[in-house]
C-alpha cells in the first residue's frame, strides 16, 4: 500500500470548494481521508499551502501557437475569420514547426496546472490526426474537428470527440441541422463560436431573423463559445436549455471584440466555463485567465466578492468535469488523488479572502506539485 499524508494544508474540498484547514491522506492513488487538525504519523508539511482541483481549459486552438502575436495590427475577422491570417499561418508552416509549437503549448498547459482541454481543431481529418498524434497524456485532449466538405463528416465524427464550428454564419441552415443531428446522434459534441463579434452578430440576425445564440439553442449545441455580446435573456434561454457557455476574456480583449458578460452570467445562474482560445493570442494558462476574468467581473460589478470569486474558480476547475466526462472529481474522500498543491509564498501570504486571493493572485509558479491518480507528475 502506498500512503502519503499532506498536512498543514488549506484544502478546497468537495463540490463547493469548502475551505478545510487540516490534512489529506492519499492511499493507492485515492483520497482516503480529509480532516481538520494534525494527522498521526509522518506527513509532508505544506506550510499552509493550498490543495485545489486542477484546471480544465474548455476552449483552445493549440496549433495556432505557431504564429504567436499574429494579431498585431489586425482586427479579429482579419486574424481568425474565414481566410484570416491564422489559416495562412497554419497552411504555410512546415509540419515539424507546427508540431514543435503545439507540443510546447500542451506542455505549458500541464505545467500551469491544466489536466484537460477542449480544442477546436481546424484542417479537417488531417488536422485532427495531427493533434491526436502529438497529444501528451496525462493531459487529456478533447478534440472537436472542423469539416470543409460534406464527405469528411462521417470520418471526422468517428475519429473526433465531435464538431467545433468556427461560426454559424459559415453554413446554411440545412447544413447546420444535418451536421448537428449527425454529431449528436453519434453521441459526440456539437459546439460553435457565437456572438464573439458584435457586427457579425447583428449581420447574422438581420440575415437569418434569429440571433446566433437562438440558432445554437435550436441546434441543441452541447455548448457555445464566447457569447461575448450575449444578452441577459439569451443567457437565461441558454440556461433553461442546459447549454453551457465558455468565456474567453483574455482572447476577446486582445482581439478587441469586448468583454464577456460575466456579471450577467452569475446573476442569471447560467452555466459557464473558461477557455483560453487561440494560443496565437495568449498562453493557455488558466491562472492568468481567471485572474483577468476577475478584473473584468469587478469592472462590471464592484459588489462581486468571495462567493463570486469561488464561482470563477469552480468554472475553471469542477464545473466542466461532467460535460467532458473527465476521470477525476472534487477534492474529497473516495475520489482519485488528482489535484494541485500550491505553495503559500510571497503573493499568497496574508490573504483576507482565500477564493478572491487565489483567483486574483495565484500564479503557475505557486504550483508545488500536480498530483494525478496519486502520482506526482509535476514537482517544483
Ligand atoms: Zn475559438
Describe the model:
- Helix content is 37%, strand content 25%.
- It is an alpha/beta fold.
- Helix 12 (286-300) runs antiparallel to helix 13 (306-317).
- The longest helix has 17 residues, at 95-111.
- The radius of gyration is 21 Å and the shape is globular.
- The protein binds zinc ion (ZN).
- Residues 59, 61, 120, 193, 225, 277 line the site of zinc ion (ZN).
- Zinc ion binds at residues 59, 61, 120, 193, 225, 277.
Secondary structure layout:
Blueprint: E1 3-13, E2 18-27, E3 30-36, E4 44-52, E5 55-61, H1 76-80, H2 85-92, H3 95-111, E6 114-120, H4 124-134, E7 140-145, H5 153-159, E8 162-165, H6 173-185, E9 189-194, H7 198-208, H8 212-218, E10 223-226, H9 232-240, E11 245-247, H10 249-254, H11 262-268, E12 272-274, E13 277-278, H12 286-300, H13 306-317, H14 320-323, E14 339-342, H15 354-361, E15 367-372, E16 375-379
Parallel strand pairs: 1-4, 5-6, 5-13, 6-7, 7-8, 8-9, 9-10, 10-11, 11-12
Antiparallel strand pairs: 1-2, 2-3, 4-14, 14-15, 15-16
Helix pairs in contact: 12-13, 12-15, 13-15
The chain binds zinc ion (ZN).
**Overall tally of domains:** 2
Do you know the CATH topology of the largest domain? TIM Barrel
Strand order of the largest sheet: 12-11-10-9-8-7-6-5-13
Low-pLDDT parts are none
Largest sheet: 9 strands, parallel
CATH architecture of the largest domain: Alpha-Beta Barrel
Overall SS class: alpha/beta
Give the amount of beta strand, in percent. Answer: 15-25%
Q: What distance lies between the first and last C-alpha atoms, to the nearest angstrom?
A: 25 Å
Helical residue percent?
25-40%
The CATH superfamily of the largest domain appears as Metal-dependent hydrolases
Amino acid at each position: 500500500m502506498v500512503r502519503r499524508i499532506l498536512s498543514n494544508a488549506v484544502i478546497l474540498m468537495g463540490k463547493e470548494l469548502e475551505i478545510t484547514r487540516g490534512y489529506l491522506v492519499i492511499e493507492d492513488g485515492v483520497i482516503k481521508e480529509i480532516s481538520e487538525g494534525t494527522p498521526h504519523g509522518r506527513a509532508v508539511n505544506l506550510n499552509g499551502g493550498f490543495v485545489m482541483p486542477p484546471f480544465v481549459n474548455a476552449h483552445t486552438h493549440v496549433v495556432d501557437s505557431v504564429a504567436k502575436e499574429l494579431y498585431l495590427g489586425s482586427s479579429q475577422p482579419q486574424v481568425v475569420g474565414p481566410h484570416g491570417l491564422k489559416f495562412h499561418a497554419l497552411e504555410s508552416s512546415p509540419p515539424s514547426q507546427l508540431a514543435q509549437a503545439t507540443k510546447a503549448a500542451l506542455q505549458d498547459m500541464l505545467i500551469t496546472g491544466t489536466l484537460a482541454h477542449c480544442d477546436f481543431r481546424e484542417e479537417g481529418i488531417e488536422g485532427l490526426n495531427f493533434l491526436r498524434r502529438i497529444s501528451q497524456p496525462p493531459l487529456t485532449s478533447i478534440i472537436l474537428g472542423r469539416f470543409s466538405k460534406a464527405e469528411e463528416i462521417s470520418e471526422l465524427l468517428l475519429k473526433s470527440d465531435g464538431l467545433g464550428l468556427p461560426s454559424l454564419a459559415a453554413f446554411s441552415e440545412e447544413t447546420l441541422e444535418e451536421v448537428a443531428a449527425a454529431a449528436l446522434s453519434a453521441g459526440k459534441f456539437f459546439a460553435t463560436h457565437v456572438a464573439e463579434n458584435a457586427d457579425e452578430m447583428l449581420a447574422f440576425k438581420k440575415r437569418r431573423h434569429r440571433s446566433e445564440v437562438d440558432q445554437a439553442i435550436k441546434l441543441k449545441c452541447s455548448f457555445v463559445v464566447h457569447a461575448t455580446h450575449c444578452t441577459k435573456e439569451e443567457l437565461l434561454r441558454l440556461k433553461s436549455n442546459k447549454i453551457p457557455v465558455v468565456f474567453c476574456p483574455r482572447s476577446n480583449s486582445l482581439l478587441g471584440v469586448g468583454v464577456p458578460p460575466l456579471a450577467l452570467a452569475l446573476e442569471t445562474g447560467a452555466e459557464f466555463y473558461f477557455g483560453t482560445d487561440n494560443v496565437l493570442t495568449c498562453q493557455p494558462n488558466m491562472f492568468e485567465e481567471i485572474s483577468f476574468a476577475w478584473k473584468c467581473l469587478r469592472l462590471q460589478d464592484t459588489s462581486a466578492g468571495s462567493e463570486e470569486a469561488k464561482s470563477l474558480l469552480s468554472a475553471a476547475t469542477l464545473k466542466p468535469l461532467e460535460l467532458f466526462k473527465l476521470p477525476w472529481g472534487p477534492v474529497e474522500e473516495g475520489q482519485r488523488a488528482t489535484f494541485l498543491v500550491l505553495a503559500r509564498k510571497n503573493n499568497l501570504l496574508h490573504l483576507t479572502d482565500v477564493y478572491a486571493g487565489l483567483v486574483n493572485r495565484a500564479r503557475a509558479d505557486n504550483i508545488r506539485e500536480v498530483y494525478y491518480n496519486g502520482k506526482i507528475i509535476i514537482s517544483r
